[in-house]
Fold these 3 entries.
Entry 1:
Amino acid sequence: MKISNELEAFLEYITVTKALSKKSIQAYRTDLSLIEEELKKPLIKLDSNAVLSSLVKYENKRTLNRKLSAINAFFDFCYKSQFSDDKIKIKFAKIPKLLPKFLSYNDIQNSLILIDRTTWIGKRDYALILFLYASGTRISECLDLTRDDFEDEWLHIRHAKGEKERIIPIAKIAIDAIKEYLLEIKWEKEFIWCNYKGDKLSRISAYKITQKYLGVSPHVLRHSYATSLITGGADLRVVQELLGHASLLTTQIYTHIQRQDLQSTVEACHPMNKK
């Protein structure tokens, strides 16, 4: 499918300069090229009304906003690259704020007890779940980790989303679980997490592991990590740094959890709330 020169330049920019993942780049290409194909015009020659007319079919506001995010990123690139004199930015659709699903520490501990750690696969599953909760890493970052990324009880995340790298502390119990698992496997691989063939563990396999023991996706453990920090009194900017969020706005969703926790504490402890 032939795409405009400006769109080609944008895709090269997010590939080389922004260093986005292949999955993200493909999503941008698909979303933006479909608009050009449907309207039979280069994106740069379309105004916001024309773009919105091509998106009215998307009733799901989250899907719509994902596509609008790609469109705004393209227009911003064109303006900064002087391909366009107009700085176009289309407003996102309003969606209700939903609290992220999370598990408590006790929920996770109760599930970990069920893992048979007499086998190397059991040790791997135990270590993986502990690590995800102890680090708050994205599953893509977790699966890309190598042995060189660990230094004592610190983790260097080099394979971060976009260009961001970060160093975070890891609980000793998670480090010990990983060491115990690595002693059991017979393969000398660079990466940490492997399947029964000795190949790198896939996202689907990681999803099956957390589903099996916790009934959730790996991403819920990232939310659980952040929630535990916030309710424990951690500063929002520290949590932002630990999670690798580019913007504090992304992290602010956890303030709703903090407010809930404060409210429930007052309701349970303040004498005026007791009957």
Entry 2:
Amino acid sequence: MATTADFRNGLCFNLNGEPWKIVSFLHVKPGKGPAFVRTKIRNLNTGRLLENTFTSGVKIDVIRVENRKYQFLYSEGNDYHLMNNEDYEQLMMQKDFIENVEFLKEGENIEVLFHADKGIPLSAQVPSHVVLEITFTEPGVKGNTATNATKPATTETGAKINVPLFINEGDKIKIDTAKKSYIERIK
């Protein structure tokens, strides 16, 4: 058992008999009344995102989880086929259970979160930074701005992202998958 003082991003716990994962949380101590924790949690069975408030000190049942490295092989509609890097066992996950799936390309390694006691996959996470090629973007016009300006671009995986004006088609860029933002151009 844990309390709200143990909350952290990524913590998995049981709530009403279902597994949930904390996406974000904020401790709030109002001037009047008891403290509480405002959270965004994701249901690991359905993928649904929910905002929930816990009173400070409430006890939760923490789930033991473990991360395993898998390689993304291919997708068929909403089904994504993954392979364990150690024993070559294959696993199929639905698109809704892979966070930031729009940045996932074939051959990429991802972390799959497993329920340690039951051995079932709960969710998957794309690496925090990926390198993708730009397949489409409008040409940037030099001198049309005085400060940092961006333009929309499409990556090889189909994800849409804003990039600086000097980025052209065929350039490889590094992307922060959590913020869904451009980091740098790769030469």
Entry 3:
Amino acid sequence: MEKTNRVKPHLSLLTTGQMEQIHHYALQILSKTGVRVDLDSVRELLIKRLGAGALKEKIVRFPAEVVDWALAAAPARIELFNRRGRPAFQLGDDALHFGIGVTTLFYQDPLTGELAPFTRKHMQDMVRLGSSLSHYDVISTVGIVQDVPTPLSDLYGSLEMLVNTTKPLVLLVSNEGKFSSVLDLFEHLQGNLAEKPFLLPYFNPVSPLVMNAGTVDKMRIAIERGLPVIYSNYSMAGASTPLTPAGTLALLMAELLAGLTISQIFKEGAPILLGMLPVFFDMKAMVNFYDPQSILLNLACAEMMAHYHLPHCGTSGSGTGWGADLIAADTYWMNSLTYSMSSGGLAPFVGDTLGSKVFSPNTVVYVHEMIDQTRRLIDGFELDDQHAVLEEIDRIGAGGSFLTAPSTLKGYKNGYYPSPVFPRWSMEKWQAAGKPTAAQVLGEYTAGLISKSSAPEDHDQLMAKGEKFIARLTA
């Protein structure tokens, strides 16, 4: 009997030589061009470590040996917990974890497609929706709440995130001055955030090559509190980064290594995920978009992080389309499939559309279907004597039927993808159902999920406690 041999697809993009070349380009940018650091206190800290010769005005140049030290100092694995303190998953292995979000201004109704300003109710419903769908491992800040006083938007939005799920959270705070207050709120409700971390604050530099004051200050605060952080940059090729993929990759990688180095100077061994959102900029339409080159850059970044032995946070392919439509499906499918066959990481931003200004619950549900099918694909299949069923083939023979064969009866329910959203109708059944479009079926199914998605049992208690905390801040 031959040993079990599982056939599994895998996608590899870069050779070892190419990874070394990309690293060399990034180091050259860091040591020659440098990075602008806008916060005085951080520049002073860097000079203590790098020497006065590394600074010219606000430009800091990073020598290769310090970057190498930072790469060795940062941990290769980050364990995340749910907010009840139970292990959730580990970042830095070969698995890909998905999440919903992020920071949209509008909400798209699943039934009508109409847009409305994003509210607390929308945040509540979307967090519960993401929490109810098993393939989403994290909930990212879904939208910017607009039905509360603007200075309190981050606090109320973050409160809705925490009380409506127990899954790990990716936190984005729009008002830089409220970041510490949001962490204070979470500590007030959950205690020590660093002991069993369920919270991942997310930070962006400003491309090209600017470590803006708000980013480095929030990163310092999070690291000092013992939290793991995500440091990810966002390109607009042809505008904020070079039009060539190689130029964009080199520049963004230099920014990531600068952020990594700063994080380790803040605290050696600080857990950090690095990644990029590599979009293009359409100078005629004045919009940004993902295309196949963007997907390749995401894969290249994932492989570079695996090469560095660092956890990776990449793109979900979000923001394209006009809702859960053919345009959005194009990019989501391409990204989900290729990323799933690569080095793994975190894809925390499923669901936004219309240039990332709008959150689409239909997209969340549709991409959940994609993830399920993608995981079935990358799981492969067994190639061995047992699964080849040669004796069964011989017994049934030419012209026979496998409808009642033992292998069919044993594996029927798990042998193909059973969509909970889209029924497999014949033409006659589709006509009898009123000839609905797939979009209509998706919208009705999504609306039903939203209506049934419930809060954790401690919702009311935590909400009351959080509301009192916010009220004291404004008293």
